[in-house]
Write a structure and sequence with these properties.
The protein has 315 residues and is α/β, with parallel strands linked by helices. Helices cover 47% and strands 18% of the residues.
């Protein structure tokens, strides 16, 4: 009788556990996946567009989303990954802070079974992220270089303000520009310094450079935030109408200044296209797809005064 009682108890416990597991499984099956949007910095309007677009596209597909700001700090980015993985996010739409340093964070997510789709910035491996959706930075800056040469009649002194040293976009843009400009011996680069893709820092960098080089003819900036910083520095020095400025991104404020003749050219990137593609890939992953192209190039278009009015808010 005692054995029968124990047997019944064990059977009842087993049934209870099975029911509990079934309920948990059923709940998990009905829950929508959560999508994290991790952005290098929100202290730049261009990246705000990228972040908000990625979040909205994922929401439109029916997913809960949250934006994480890494503040251009690899340590904060690492904390963001730890937080979102422990919080049960199911996919990451990611704009890295560093081409090498961000790899370890992607691998943490991969180990946890969370796919990572890079947007705009790449990392230096093909074995970490699920896919990377990237602007064609090099080709875009080849076009900027051609316009630069034409605008300055193939000669002059210039400054280059590059972006974050650890970001591949920095060197792709610089490389594309120099692949053209360096072929013309009458150009002289008097300084090349990092402005960290930051408006205020670029302004300070150019102010310092102009103390030793007051007679420059042009400034090439690795993004539009720095181009605006350079414009502020030149305006304060009374040289805004004498020094030609070139940027890259397609920020509305810069496109407006190009239309007004205050900045010469920029490369129009399309953050909304990159964001939409990343969200679409995450949706396809949730639905069972596992093979994605490692790199998807997104074309960059050059904006000058002749076409600037056609491109305002066209991203």
């Amino acid at each position: 009788m005692k054995k029968l009682t124990i047997l019944v108890y064990v059977l009842l416990m087993g049934i209870s556990i099975m029911l509990l597991l079934s309920q948990c499984s059923s709940k998990k099956d009905t829950e929508k996946p959560k999508v994290a949007v991790v952005i290098s910095t929100l202290n730049n309007p261009w990246f705000v567009v990228l972040a908000e677009s990625a979040s909205q596209y994922a929401k439109d597909l029916g997913y809960e989303t949250k934006i994480f700001d890494s503040q251009n700090n690899p340590a904060i980015e690492s904390d963001n990954f730890e937080s979102l993985i422990s919080s049960g996010y199911d996919a990451i739409l990611f704009n890295p802070t560093d081409a090498d340093g961000s790899i370890s964070n992607i691998l943490k997510a991969k180990e946890a079974g969370v796919p990572v789709f890079c947007m705009d910035r790449e990392v230096n491996t093909n074995d970490a992220s699920t896919s990377q959706i990237l602007s064609d930075n090099y080709s875009g800056c080849v076009e900027i270089g051609i316009e630069f040469v034409k605008s300055l009649n193939e000669k002059g002194k210039y400054v280059e303000i590059i972006g974050l040293v650890g970001d591949n976009n920095t060197w792709a843009r610089s490389g594309g520009f120099h692949s053209v400009v360096d072929k013309f011996p009458n150009f002289k680069m008097v300084a090349q310094q990092s402005g960290d893709f930051d408006r205020n820092k670029a302004m300070e960098v150019l102010e310092t450079i102009m103390q030793a080089n007051p007679d420059i003819d042009a400034v090439f900036c690795g993004n539009d935030a720095m181009a605006l910083g350079a414009y502020q520095a030149l305006l304060a020095a009374g040289k805004a109408d004498k020094v030609k400025i070139f940027g890259f991104d397609g920020a509305d404020e810069v496109v407006e200044k190009i239309a007004e003749g205050k900045i010469i050219a920029t490369g129009m990137q399309y953050p909304r296209i990159m964001a939409k593609t990343a969200a679409k890939y995450a949706d396809e992953f949730f639905k069972g797809k596992r093979v994605f192209p490692q790199r998807i190039p997104v074309e960059v278009e050059m904006i000058t005064k002749t076409n600037a009015k056609n491109y305002l808010s066209k991203k």
